[in-house]
């Protein structure tokens, strides 16, 4: 009989734990078991140490691990993230502690000196308050001849040196007279030429595709590997990529092929990102491509790495006044959704006919209503369609989600009061009362999938659950603001959304997402108190994937 799970084994008894069992009604408290047996990667028993099953497992040479009262939760599944960007963000030079332009420059300079072989220098963590005079490309030009790219902490702006700007313009075919993309700005100098700063939509539509394109295959594989490691360390065993395309799929599959035809310690489900196009044929051809990949990579062939559906970004965000609202913003702006409804109907119908799931990004109430209408007409419950973000839904639409079996894919970290300071000014206090109506979605019977939208927000699951259940700030814990407390989820609703709900949303609930006999032994061991106020202090100690420990603190 082994003493501890120091070596991988296919038969383990976990004793003296608090093993989380979803209550039948998630407004109730969790049910906790003390003992779990795992064999050949699956959960074979949950109960108490006195059970006959446990005694015979112990006799048959199973490794016994004493949990010393720690909590065991199902492995977290991030319901919405951007895999390659997460990985790339992890390897960037951190500027968070800088206070001035000089600090930033000297930090980049020492990185450049220590890393003579990297072809480009990527940085993160810049805030505008470090550079109150404003910035442009020239300010970075005397540091290093290589292209330099600097992201703001919130990822809503990117600043580059002249060499970097040249490369962006070349690769993305941008000229001095290229217009700003929808919902974004390319900052200009006095002559109207781009000056090296990209904001909002220009980051997502120009910088991110640029970075994905110029990174080498090796760099991308390395980024994906670091994302998997970081997510295992945070307690994740699964993730749903919400903007998959060829530039990410290719390295992901190559990485998988190199590691015995199996991703290591992580399951990925992906939605293929639809790119806007004036030609309906070109739009529908993208659905064909997704369907082709889904026929090759699905639950039967590659359960750890699947292409499950298509994703359409139907509007922008409130802060940039690009989310489409039924009433104008306070400044008079009143943008339409980014995709017209008459294109979404054939797109969704075709995806449904091809067996694909559909995920629609909809933040403003006008877009949300349109998204629900389109899903209602062209797909159905059996396909588990979903809507991403749902930040400003009307009460009527909140109720429709459950009735239509539409998963509410929510990112509680986006409802952190520290990042909503502009909302009252942009949409007025009245509409702010409808913000992030998570509890209404749940009460209306909508399946919930919780995600982080990393790297646009931090990916740690326990802080995400804290914001979901307290509606308070995790970024600035001292902040007294509570965002519409009546919409808070219970701890069990939030835990379910971040585990079983995310699995359910992509048809993975048959093998992961809960701690039940017969499912994969995907779980986290943590020191945590499962109450709204305390959950944030929890610490993930170990992460297990298919019965093997893949992370230990
Ligand atoms: Zn996203």
TrEMBL record:
Q: Which domain of life is it from?
A: Eukaryota
Xref: InterPro entries: Amidohydro_3, Metal-dep_hydrolase_composite, Metal_Hydrolase, YtcJ-like
Pfam families named among the record's database cross-references? Amidohydro_3 (PF07969)
Q: Which positions are tagged coiled coil?
A: none
Amidohydrolase domain span: 65-551
Name listed for the protein in its UniProt record: Amidohydrolase 3 domain-containing protein
Which gene holds the coding sequence for this protein?
Answer: g6412
């Amino acid at each position: 009989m082994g003493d501890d799970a120091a070596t991988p084994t296919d038969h383990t008894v976990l004793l003296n734990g608090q093993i989380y069992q979803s209550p039948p009604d998630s407004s109730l408290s969790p049910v906790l078991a003390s003992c779990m047996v795992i064999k050949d990667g699956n959960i074979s028993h949950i109960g108490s140490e006195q059970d006959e099953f446990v005694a015979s497992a112990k006799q048959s040479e199973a490794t016994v691990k004493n949990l010393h009262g720690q909590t065991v939760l199902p492995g977290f599944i991030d319901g919405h993230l951007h895999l390659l960007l997460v990985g790339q963000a992890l390897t960037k030079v951190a500027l968070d502690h800088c206070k001035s332009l000089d600090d930033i420059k000297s930090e980049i300079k020492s990185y450049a000196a220590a890393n003579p072989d990297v072809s480009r220098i990527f940085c993160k963590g810049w805030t505008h308050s470090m550079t109150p005079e404003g910035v442009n490309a020239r300010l970075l030009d005397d540091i290093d001849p290589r292209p330099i790219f600097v992201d703001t902490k919130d990822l809503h702006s990117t600043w580059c040196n002249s060499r970097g700007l040249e490369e962006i313009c070349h690769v993305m075919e941008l000229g001095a007279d290229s217009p700003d993309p929808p919902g974004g700005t390319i900052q200009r100098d006095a002559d109207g030429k781009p000056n090296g700063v990209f904001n909002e939509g220009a980051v997502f539509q120009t910088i991110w595709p640029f970075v994905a394109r110029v990174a080498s295959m090796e760099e991308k594989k390395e980024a994906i590997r670091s994302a998997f490691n970081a997510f295992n360390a945070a307690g994740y065993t699964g993730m749903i990529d919400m903007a998959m395309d060829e530039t990410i799929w290719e390295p992901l599959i190559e990485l998988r092929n190199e590691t015995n035809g199996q991703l290591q310690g992580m399951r990925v489900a992906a939605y293929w990102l639809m790119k806007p196009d004036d030609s309906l044929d070109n739009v529908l051809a993208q659905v064909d491509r997704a369907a082709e990949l889904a026929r090759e990579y699905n639950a039967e062939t590659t359960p750890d790495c699947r292409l499950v559906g298509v994703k359409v970004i139907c509007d922008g965000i409130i802060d940039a006044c690009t989310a489409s609202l039924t009433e104008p913003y306070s400044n008079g702006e009143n943008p339409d959704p980014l995709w017209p409804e008459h294109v979404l109907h054939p797109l969704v119908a075709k995806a449904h006919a091809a067996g694909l799931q559909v995920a629609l990004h909809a933040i403003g109430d006008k877009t949300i209503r349109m998204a629900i209408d389109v899903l209602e007409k062209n797909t159905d419950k059996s396909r588990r369609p979903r809507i991403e973000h749902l930040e400003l839904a009307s009460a009527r639409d909140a109720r429709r989600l459950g009735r239509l079996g539409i998963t509410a894919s929510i990112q509680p970290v986006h409802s952190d009061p520290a990042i909503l300071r502009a909302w009252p000014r942009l949409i007025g206090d009245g509409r702010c009362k409808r913000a992030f109506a998570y509890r209404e979605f749940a009460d209306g019977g909508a399946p919930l999938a919780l995600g982080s939208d990393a790297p646009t927000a931090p990916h740690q699951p326990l802080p995400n659950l804290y914001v979901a259940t307290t509606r308070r700030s995790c970024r600035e814990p001292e902040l007294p603001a509570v965002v519409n407390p009546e919409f808070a989820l219970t701890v069990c609703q939030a835990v379910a959304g971040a585990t079983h709900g995310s699995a359910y949303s992509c048809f993975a609930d048959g093998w992961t997402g809960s701690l039940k006999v017969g499912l994969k032994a995907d779980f986290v061991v943590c020191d945590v108190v499962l109450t709204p106020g305390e959950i944030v202090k929890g610490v993930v100690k170990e992460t297990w994937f298919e019965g093997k420990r893949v992370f230990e603190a």
